[in-house]
Amino acid sequence: MIVETEAYLPHDAASHAFRGETQRNRVMFRRGGYLYVYFTYGMHHCANVVTGKAGAGEAVLIRAAEPVEGIEIMIKNRHTSGQMGRSTRPRMHSRQPFAAPERNLTNGPARLCEAFGLTRKQDGEDLTGKNIFIGKGKKIHRSSLGRSTRIGIRLGKKKRWRFFLKGNPWVSRKPHG
DNA sequence: GGAACGATTGAT
DNA sequence: TCAATCGTTCCT
User: Fold this and answer.
1) How many angstroms separate the CA of A39 from the C1' of B3?
2) Global confidence as pTM
3) What angle do CA A133, A31, A164 make, to 5 degrees?
4) What is the separation of C-alpha A7 from the centre of its chain, rounded to a whole number of angstroms?
């Protein structure tokens, strides 16, 4: 269940599409309904849903999700692909209580991709098909929808285009602005 | 060809 | 707060 997203709109300086179409971001310029996955920091992937009309260059970053099914697979994916560090594993000699193991599975855009096994191989996947898709959600009350500035960007800091489910434990971090 | 950087994460 | 790590972009 998706619990946190960020919008990247046309003419948005923070967007990969801002400087026009390139080989990396070409999927962003298709019509809405495709998956855009990019590779960053030399080790992470992030997944987006393309949302605009053809040529617009618009997408929504999926920043976090609450695991509903397939948790064992997610744990396996997180442990077998590269970046999984010691800190997320239970530590024998730690006196600190550690979070439930599924808590760090999908509470961030790169962790989510690792858990779901999304890489550049899935870039351009048709989300209206049967392989990868987003199911119908449940209705939420307006009051449980949070909004803030986006995270980790240099430009476009003032745009409050991050949306999340208030109080959900898988939201990647506290709202900033 | 080469430098600079990044929609992050995990360790210190 | 800082390093990891490499594809992409942009400049020469």
Assistant:
1) 19
2) 0.91
3) 55
4) 11
The letter for the amino acid at A125 is E
Is A46's CB less than 7 Å from nucleic acid strand B? yes
Nucleotides of B under 7 A from a protein CB: 5-12
pLDDT score at A98: 47
Q: How far apart are CA A48 and CA A12, in angstroms?
A: 15
Which structure tokens are listed for A60? Answer: 């929504």
Using the CB atom, is residue A42 less than 7 Å from strand C? Answer: yes
Beta bridge partners of A36: A48
Q: Alpha carbon of A61 to those of A42, A55, A89, A98, A110: distances in Å?
A: 19, 18, 27, 28, 11
Q: What is the mean pLDDT of residues A118-135?
A: 97
Where does chain A show beta strands of DSSP type E? 2-8, 35-40, 44-50, 59-65, 145-148, 162-165
Token duo for residue A50: 């393309």
- Note the pLDDT tens digit of each residue in A14-30: 999 999 999 999 999 99
Protein-contacted positions of strand C (CB under 7 Å): 4-10
